[in-house]
Design goal:
Blueprint lengths: L3 H8 L28 H9 L6 H11 L2 H12 L3 E5 L5 E6 L2 H12 L5 H4 L5 H15 L4 H14 L3 H11 L19 E4 L15 E4 L8 E12 L5 E8 L2 E8 L10 E6 L10 E14 L5 H36 L2 E2 L2 E2 L4 H29 L4 H33 L10 H7 L2 H4 L4 H14 L2 H10 L7 H13 L6 H24 L2 H12 L16 H8 L5
Helix pairs in contact: 2-11, 3-7, 4-5, 7-10, 7-11, 8-9, 8-10, 10-11, 10-12, 11-12, 11-18, 11-19, 11-20, 12-13, 12-15, 12-16, 12-18, 15-18, 16-18, 17-18, 18-19
């Protein structure tokens, strides 16, 4: 016979319940914190580079960027890839790209906050710096949707080459509104601009393009043409118009091609497919056939590369911001995790070897940010010859170096977090997949090195400006002085620059970063940078800071505080 007393005891016996353990030693999610207030290096750069007036606005924006709901928008935009259909149910060609509501909300916030327009609508001291800082914050929420934001922002300098087109298009390009409808631009309150340069056979060699432009009537600037050809990469196909390179009898020329014709009919450019990318998935990239699409010439005939390069200079700058932002988000995640998790009897961030790695990652991010924001200041002062020359050379050098350093930085930060950092419900896999994009788009590493050479050949004064700026730190650190002197010596003969380009551009970037950190950065960060980057005693991986540096101070500086 069963014993009732024994049965009752068993029902309360913990050995037989499903709860096997208490969840401890796991950090709380990094959310509901202010991305601007918790980023000491960014706040210092904003003040240093002349955008102190934007401090309150950036504080407000940083609070939005750190909200749990905002972070979830980024998650949802990436979890739901863009969709595409060629025709409606009646058989009409639509080339319609659809997005998750989270994507549209992020676009709305970006455009209403002027990330595509503010330096053009409110120019002046610190305008590019303030915009770069806000873009830096916004990119940390979700990077992929920033592609059409960047291109819309960057299109203005090129379109202004044609005043009549600028008069027609600029007001809607610069409007701080978001209108996602696929309707003629005449019916819209705002528009976005894309870019179509790359073709299968040429890739980075756009002069090999075969797309042809046929004049409708008169030839030349501002005149209508019909374009026939293909484009291997068009980002982003849902934009309202595109800057396109096509051949005329005078050579490669630049055109503004809208999605719709003035009579309200669809322009015959046809999306063949959306690209299936490893990262940047919230952004639609496409392959397109152009079948007599109406477009208007922008700039001089046969000078298309020169015309569109003004746009490309801006998009390359945004690649620098985006990669530096990816580094910052990776650093924030890694330091937050290690500050709130223990192993082997101590908090991870208090253990010497982990301190070395975390501090090294922070140094990389701060150096990238300092370089980027200095270029932003140069962009704000293009009427100054030194600043103009500096921006011309520092942009390809910085785009090459910062973007190329990001993938390994993302991986190393992921490793700091460990197994949970590899999980798809963590932001780290997204940061890792996103990390190669900026290094490849807008000109790969080799293209940036060759553009550096082009600047040196066409305007040798750019190198003088670069070294003049770097030399402002002479006398502050022996290691820097030696590095700078050796680099200047190696530039005495650049006859084989193409072969040595990566080595020289690497060292140019390090020289400028070292100069900026020594002059304006945190003392411990600058010292560790010089010790690990400018002396030939480091290893190839992060975590090679030599003895005598102060990793604890660097980590405290770079770790966000939640709650």
């Amino acid at each position: 016979m069963n014993n009732p007393q024994r049965k009752a005891e068993s029902a309360t016996d913990n050995r037989y319940l499903s709860a096997t353990h208490e969840v401890i030693n796991q950090p709380r999610p990094l959310e509901n914190y202010n991305l601007y207030e918790q980023d000491t290096a960014l706040r210092e750069a904003v003040l240093r580079e002349g955008a102190g007036f934007a401090n309150d606005d950036l504080t407000r924006f940083g609070a939005w960027a750190g909200l749990a709901d905002t972070i979830e928008l980024g998650n949802q935009a990436n979890a739901n890839k863009p969709g595409f259909r060629t025709h409606d149910r009646y058989g009409h060609r639509t080339d319609e790209v659809s997005f998750h509501p989270a994507y549209h909300e992020l676009m709305r916030v970006a455009l209403e906050n002027g990330l595509h327009s503010s330096p053009w609508t409110n120019p002046g001291k610190g305008a590019h710096v303030a915009r770069a800082a806000k873009y830096y914050l916004h990119s940390q929420v979700e990077a992929a949707h920033c592609c059409p934001v960047t291109m819309t922002f960057a299109a203005i300098p090129s379109i202004q080459n044609q005043p009549d087109l600028a008069k027609l298009w600029a007001p809607k390009i610069l409007a701080n509104e978001y209108d996602s409808r696929n309707v003629p631009d005449s019916e819209k309150t705002s528009v976005t601009i894309g870019m179509a340069m790359t073709e299968k056979q040429g890739g980075s060699d756009v002069r090999a393009n075969t797309t042809v432009a046929y004049p409708v009537g008169q030839q030349g600037l501002g005149q209508p043409y019909e374009l026939v050809g293909h484009k291997w990469f068009v980002s982003a196909p849902m934009c309202d118009a595109f800057l396109v390179l096509a051949q005329t009898t005078s050579g490669l020329s630049c055109f503004l091609m809208p999605r719709w014709r003035p009579d309200g009919t669809k322009n015959p450019w046809q999306v063949q497919q959306l690209k299936n990318k490893m990262g940047n998935v919230a952004n639609a990239s496409s392959e397109v056939e152009i079948r007599g699409a109406l477009a208007w010439m922008v700039g001089e005939e046969g000078r298309g590369v020169r015309t569109i390069i003004e746009m490309v200079a801006m998009t390359r700058f945004d690649c620098m911001i985006g990669s530096a932002a990816g580094m910052r988000q990776a650093v924030a995640q890694a330091t937050h995790h290690c500050h709130n998790r223990s192993a082997f009897g101590a908090t991870l961030s208090d253990q010497p070897l982990m301190q070395n790695v975390l501090a090294d990652l922070i140094i990389e991010n701060e150096a990238a940010l300092a370089y980027t924001m200095r270029v932003a200041r140069a962009m704000d002062n293009q009427d100054n010859e030194h600043e103009r020359l500096l921006a011309r050379l520092a942009t390809p050098v910085g785009k090459y170096w910062i973007c190329k350093r990001t993938p390994n930085h993302a991986y190393e930060a992921m490793e700091c977090i460990g197994g949970s950092g590899v999980m798809e419900d963590c932001i780290m896999p997204r940061l890792f997949r996103e990390s190669p994009v900026n290094a490849i788009w807008e000109g790969s590493g080799n293209v940036q090195c060759l553009d550096t050479l082009r600047a040196l050949q066409k305007e040798p004064e750019t190198l003088d400006a670069f070294f003049k700026e770097a030399a402002e730190a002479k006398g502050t650190d022996r290691r820097f002085d030696q590095h700078l002197a050796q680099l200047q010596h190696d530039f005495a003969d650049i006859s084989d620059f193409q072969y040595r380009a990566r080595n020289l551009v690497d060292r140019m970037a390090l020289t400028m970063q070292g100069s900026l950190l020594l002059r304006f950065g945190d003392k411990d960060v600058a010292d560790a940078f010089c010790a690990s980057r400018l002396q030939n005693n480091g290893g190839m991986n992060y975590g090679n800071l030599p003895s005598g540096t102060n990793p604890a101070a660097i980590i405290k500086r770079g770790t966000p505080v939640v709650g």
